[in-house]
Amino acid sequence: MFQGLSPLARDAKAWPFEQARNLLTRILRVRLTDGERDLAATLIGSGKAAEAVASLPALARPVILETGYGPSGLPHLGTFQEVARTTMVRAAFRSLTDDAIPTRLISFSDDMDGLRKVAPNLPNQAMLAEDMGKPLTVVRDPFGTHDSFGAHNNARLCAFLDQFGFDYEFVSSTDCYRGGRFDETLLIALERFDAIQKVMLPTLGEERRATYSPFLPVSPTTGRVLQVPTLERNVAKGTIVFEDEDGKRNEVPVTGGHVKMQWKPDWAMRWTALGIDYEMSGKDLIDSVKASNQICKALGGVPPEGFNYELFLDEDGQKISKTKGNGLTMEEWMRYGAPESLAYYVFQSPKSAKKLYFDVIPKASDEYLQQLDAYQRQEPAQQINNPVWHVHGGQPPEQGSPVSFSLMLNLVSAADASDKAILWGFLSRYIPGASAETQPLLDRLAGFAIHYYEDFVKPKKAFRSPDDRERAALLDLRARLAALPADCQDAELIQNEVYSAGNDAGFDPLRSWFQALYEVLLGQSQGPRFGSFAAIFGLTRTLALIDEKLG
Predict the structure, then answer these.
(1) What's the average model confidence in pLDDT over 31-52?
(2) Cα–Cα dist 423/534, whole Å
(3) Within a 13 Å sphere around the CA of 82, how many CA atoms are in the beta-carbon half?
(4) Residue 250 pairs with which residues in a beta bridge?
């Protein structure tokens, strides 16, 4: 359809662009007639997206992308990755259409869900137990800071997303149900009750099928969200009849917040009522997406475009669970790495399962920095596939970091640095004019490196004595470095001397020489280029380090 698109957008291999092209295809298919679709494709393909929107008013309606949040708990790394990935698709779509077709990103909170269990780490357990089953926006806030537990967690969600600069609109399920935003679609759902049941009942066990209803009434007597059968339906009045907790029959409207839908019908109803065009979800929800797609069609809606991503695994390859507490938390990643490095990590291969534990942070940090450094030297066709284009919404910073995270870690290790001032003593000499103000990313990396070193590297440091060949090679290296000017900061020159010392000593493969260097001098088995480390650490200090470990 988009033969006319510039090769840059048409041939971009990065997955957000693949998703953006699918989304654009959907928009043209759903909103336009065949003739209009051909015209729009031609105009957009020839770089005239604004003209297409001006000519075809249906394209001026915003494209809506959605992410979901369950406010029974605090926002977490899964919340970040879903909003970050959806934001990447949105940025690619805006680039694809020259930002002529408006877009919105909704962060939807399913805060009308009934409270089903109380996490053991929450305060005021007895109070929460009393409110069990009530909508989260009715459950009292155990922290005492907001009108409800749902409001508390919603506030935390918004603060969380704001912290990372996401561009989004917060939408509350409770507001939509009680404020009438869902009323029209809820009445359609009541009318098409049997069609919804036809989709849902085959997916349930025998016992569940006997009592299942897509409508969950809110008890007028207890305020709880009830999982009870629908005994009668009155489409003309827009009501259902159910048996309340006291055994009496009650009749309530399906509108105005008197009911909530079961989550799969709710998902479909929300897509239909809000006109959602795109939503991604985890691989574990593939069957749920299929059911919700069918219900959405039954309600007269068009299911959104989207794809299923793989779930994160812990260090042992097990599925990450909030209950088990395995895997990383957002707070842990943010202690040791920049949010840009996390965004880079979630960008990579979303359809492949990836392990998420502490050791991935230095690697992700360095790969992000390498891509950022490469971006400035790339042609536009390469830049648009570079992960940092997507991490930064098409506008990566011009300045990266002249020092890698792993090199910073080794600098912290060698200097036994406990604060950034010590590191800046080395960095400012190595990078003329550099300071925390002129190199903000480098300054942040210094702080992350100190935290990571103190928590993970220092407790595991294991120095060893060199064997005879290693000792001879280290003495040779010492002599070579001593022959250089004391203020030498030529990392390549120093690295060549390291190579020569290893080669002359007969190390084969040569990496065993570098492993020996790090095990003897730094108490670890690997590190970055030794020449770069020595250039920043200073030759005088490097020679003293060799003397100390050989002594």
Answers:
(1) 90
(2) 14
(3) 26
(4) 242
Tell me if the domain spanning 7-179 has CATH number 3.40.50.620. Answer: yes
Task: Report how far residue 485's alpha carbon sits from residue 55's, in angstroms, rounded to the nearest whole number.
Answer: 70
Query: Are residues 527 and 408 in contact, defined by beta-carbon separation less than 8 angstroms?
Result: no
The CA dihedral of 497, 503, 504, 507, to the nearest 10 degrees, is 130
Helix residue ranges, H only, 139-205: 149-163, 173-179, 183-191, 193-200
The two three-digit tokens of residue 142, written as one number: 């155990």
Cβ-based burial of 200 (10 A; exposed 0-12, middle 13-18, buried ≥19):
buried
More confident residue, 153 or 551: 153
Closest to 119 measured CA to CA, from 109, 107, 128, 110: 128
Does 3 have pLDDT greater than 50?
no
Q: Are 90 and 65 in contact, with CB atoms under 8 Å apart?
A: yes
Q: Indicate the length of the chain as a whole number.
A: 551
Token match 């909030």: residue?
Answer: 322
101-110 per-position pLDDT tens digit: 999 999 999 9
Tell which residue, 286, 532, 254, 236, has the closest CA to residue 411: 532
Checking if the pLDDT of 167 tops 80, the result is yes
Distance, in Å, from the CA atom of 505 to the CA atom of 493, rounded to the nearest integer, reads: 19
The residue-averaged pLDDT of 438-449 equals: 95
CATH of segment(s) 468-550: 1.10.10
Q: Using an 8 Å Cβ cutoff, are 411 and 429 in contact? A: no
pTM for the structure as a whole: 0.92
Name the nearest CA neighbour of 451 among 333, 330, 329: 333
Confidence of residue 259 (pLDDT cuts 50, 70, 90): very high
Strand partners, 63: 103
Q: What is the pLDDT of residue 512?
A: 95
Q: Whole-angstrom Cα distance, residue 119 to residue 323?
A: 9
Indicate the domain borders of the chain. Answer: 7-179, 200-263, 312-391, 405-460, 468-550
Residues 6+ apart with CB under 8 A from 307: 19, 280, 350, 351
- Asked if 51 contacts 124 with a C-beta cutoff of 8 angstroms, the reply is no
